[in-house]
Amino acid sequence: MKTDFSEEAEEGILAEIFEPGDQVPASGVYKASHGRQHLVSHYVTALFGETFPSCLGCSDQVRFELALSAVYVHAHAQFSRLGPDA
Ligand SMILES: [Zn+2]
User: Fold this and answer.
1) N or C: which end of the chain has fewer CB within 10 A?
2) pLDDT digits (tens, 9 = 90+) for 64-81
3) How confident is the model at residue 83 (pLDDT cuts 50, 70, 90)?
């Protein structure tokens, strides 16, 4: 009997929590949740390959959760007109 995981696989990137210093796994919109509740949660964009920053208010207590994956337009194959050296 075979277990079918295909539906789960189609969900794409599972919800993960990232902290300052972690590499951004995918470009998109991330929900930032701050420590010590000094600021309400809000959304930011982050680009693949960058590093999540620490917060000026709560340092490394801020957490980032991927809310909406959205590839950078010029990185998308259908919009990539830039040459390999650009
Ligand atoms: Zn903060």
Assistant:
1) N
2) 999 999 999 988 999 987
3) low
Band of residue 8 on the pLDDT scale cut at 50, 70, 90: very low
Query: Which CA distances in Å does 1 have to 5, 7, 8, 32, 56?
Result: 13, 17, 18, 42, 53
CA distance 15 to 74: 25
Q: Cβ(52)–Cβ(19) under 8 Å?
A: yes
How remote is the CA of residue 64 from the centroid of ligand 1, in Å? 11
Distance 72 CA to ligand 1 centre (A): 26
pTM, rounded to two decimals: 0.74
Ligand 1 center to residue 14 CA distance, Å? 24
